[in-house]
Specification:
- The structure holds two protein chains of two kinds.
- Chain A is mainly alpha-helical.
- In chain A, about 75% of the residues lie in helices and about 0% in strands.
- Chain A has eight helices and no strands.
- The longest helix of chain A is centred in the C-terminal third of the chain and has 38 residues.
- Chain A is globular, with a radius of gyration of 19 Å.
- Chain B has seven helices and 14 strands.
- In chain B, the strands form three sheets. In chain B, strands 1, 6, 7, 8, 13 and 14 form a six-stranded antiparallel beta sheet that branches.
- Chain B is elongated.
- In chain B, a hairpin with a 5-residue loop joins strand 4 and strand 5.
- Classes of the chains: A mainly alpha, B alpha+beta.
Chain lengths: ~260, ~300
């Protein structure tokens, strides 16, 4: 039932954002709908967490709603922090589409909604840090990705500059979170669960590749001659790889991380 | 004149090796090769690649060793160049920044990464790993005359019957056979004795059947087979509800204790719990832990800097 409400709120948000392109309201109505989405998703995660007695991000469905919820929160924060400075409506719209698409996958049969008690290896505080920080980091990457898409849709140089700054800020916030979650806490959890920090499991390999791509992005920005377009493309590739690491590896490749 | 040109070449080569651009190019190569290796299943038989890939791709896989990429010379060469680049970029800057007290988060991250890589290399050469099944009462030698004795094996379950945890309880004895302490091993909670980490890895129940014949007592477990004098082969499947199930050709046959199978008499049968333990000794772990801590420090400093810049 909750998901019907979330779905309606998402559709309502998208509708409001489309109207925003044509009519300028004094009140940003999508603040209410986005807040509603976030609170409903968090309510679902809290209820599930109480039932399974650990943070409910132990299967694809829970991870998807958590991921979608965090992206929603970032959109909300972006709107609230830029109310006076001016909000890029198209950026908000594209990011909402990204959050909605991720939420829509969780309504499909590939992500069963049933509440499952976690396997022994998944009952760990390190896993909670590993998964939650990874998705929070990736949610910032999602915002950078949406900004990157918008970057290539416009021609205005000043607007492009502003978007490039947003991309950089998002990655600078997301990168340490992703590094801590995906790689460091992941390695610590693997050490306690399986007796090794690293095993070249497909998920580990692709998480490392994603991290390396964002590392390339950060270093390319240090090289003064690098064209901005290249760095924007690199981070778009980075987010697509992050999605592949999460979904592609789960369903196409087998390994220790195939928790569906 | 020649000396100067050799010096120049070396100087330029050194400059090339420590350049950030070289680092970026190496990262890009690392990403491309690792992505290909990530998609191709690792460690399969050659036949698998031959049957599943076009001939040209198959030859490329074998030539570059994409079938075992993370142990291949190509991966080793790229990684070595990357480590050299990272070392030449980071170490001098770390020392300089440490002296001038201008140390940054990125310095800690780079050094932490190097320390982890060193740990990984130590691990390759020193890691010893073993997995074994044990039943209650069995003893495990842990060196220095000390040993463990398995006291209890437990399988914790949720209300719906799904597995919650595997638990092994054991006692540590000293060389004089004196109990030192009781230890409990669970998944995610390894114990360390004499530098050996012990992990709760698995659990199973096995059925043991004692079969008596003129030759003596023969003990078999699930999956074992016996051949009778008449030439029939019986494979033991399971022991449940006081019944024993064997497979003969395609038939599933049911037996009770005391029944005969050819010249064998079933004397008794029982089910016992087995705990699967993993033993790991790895001198690289300390270095990896130090590296992880250094990267965490670096990431915290990184955020402190962002907050500082944002406030300004």
């Amino acid at each position: 039932m909750i998901f019907i409400f979330v779905l309606i709120l998402f559709l309502l948000t998208i509708l409001i954002e489309i109207i925003n392109f044509f009519i300028k309201f004094r009140i940003r109505f999508e603040i209410g709908t986005l807040l509603g989405i976030f609170l409903l998703i968090m309510y679902e995660i809290i209820i599930r967490s109480i039932l399974i007695k650990t943070l409910a991000i132990t299967n694809t469905f829970e991870a998807l709603i958590f991921f979608s919820g965090v992206i929603t929160l970032i959109i909300l924060l972006y709107i609230l922090l830029n109310l006076k400075k001016g909000i890029q409506n198209t950026l908000v719209f594209i990011t909402t589409i990204v959050a909605f698409s991720i939420f829509a996958i969780c309504l499909s049969p590939i992500a069963p909604q049933e509440i499952k008690m976690p396997l022994p290896a998944l009952k760990s505080g390190w896993l909670v840090l590993h998964v939650s920080l990874t998705f929070i980091g990736e949610a910032f990457f999602a915002f950078a990705f949406a900004s990157g898409i918008y970057y290539f849709l416009i021609k205005n140089e000043a607007q492009k500059e502003a978007l490039e700054r947003i991309i950089n800020k998002s990655i600078i916030i997301g990168y340490p979170l992703f590094t801590s979650g995906a790689l460091l806490f992941g390695a610590i959890w693997a050490y306690y669960a399986w007796g090794r920090f690293w095993g070249w499991d497909p998920k580990e390999t692709f998480a490392l590749i994603t991290w390396l791509v964002y590392t390339i992005y950060l270093h390319l920005r240090l090289v003064s001659k690098t064209r901005k377009e290249i760095t924007v493309i690199v981070q778009i590739i980075g987010f697509l790889l992050a999605l592949f690491t999460f979904l592609g590896v789960n369903f196409l490749l087998s390994g220790l991380h195939s928790y569906r | 004149m020649k000396n100067i040109s050799v010096f120049r070449v070396l100087k330029n080569f050194f400059k090339f090796l420590k350049s950030i651009k070289t680092g970026i190019v190496l990262l890009i190569i690392l990403v491309i090769f690792s992505t290909i290796a990530g998609i191709i299943p690792q460690g399969m038989d050659i036949e698998f690649y031959k049957n599943n890939y076009p001939t040209l791709i198959f030859y490329i896989i074998i030539l570059i060793r994409f079938n075992n990429y993370f142990e291949s010379p190509v991966f080793f060469i790229i990684s070595t160049l990357f480590i050299i680049n990272l070392s030449l970029c980071s170490i001098p800057r770390f020392i300089l920044n440490l002296k001038t007290k201008l140390i940054k988060g990125s310095d800690f991250i780079h050094i932490g990464l190097l320390v982890i890589i060193i740990g990984g290399i130590i691990s390759i050469f020193t890691r010893v790993e073993d997995f074994r099944w044990f039943k209650i009462g069995e003893r495990i030698d842990v060196g220095q005359g000390k040993f463990l004795e398995i006291e209890k094996i437990d399988l914790e379950k949720y209300e719906n019957g799904k597995i919650k945890n595997y638990i092994t309880q054991f006692y540590l004895y000293d060389s004089e056979n004196k109990k030192i302490k009781e230890m409990i091993l669970k998944v995610n909670y390894p114990v360390s004795i004499n530098g050996i980490n012990i992990y709760q890895n698995s659990y199973k129940i096995i059925d043991i059947v004692s079969l008596a014949s003129d030759i003596g007592i023969k003990k078999i477990v699930n999956g074992d087979s016996i051949s009778t004098n008449s030439g029939n082969k019986y494979t033991f499947l399971k022991f449940t509800d006081s019944k024993l199930y064997f497979k003969e050709s395609e038939r599933i046959m049911e037996f009770n204790i005391g029944n005969k199978i050819g010249e064998y008499v079933i004397e008794n049968a029982k089910s016992i719990e087995m705990t699967g333990l993993k033993f790991v000794k790895d001198y690289g772990n300390i270095s990896i832990i130090i590296g992880i801590i250094l990267i965490f420090i670096g990431l915290i400093l990184f955020y402190i800097k962002i907050i500082g810049v944002t406030r300004k």
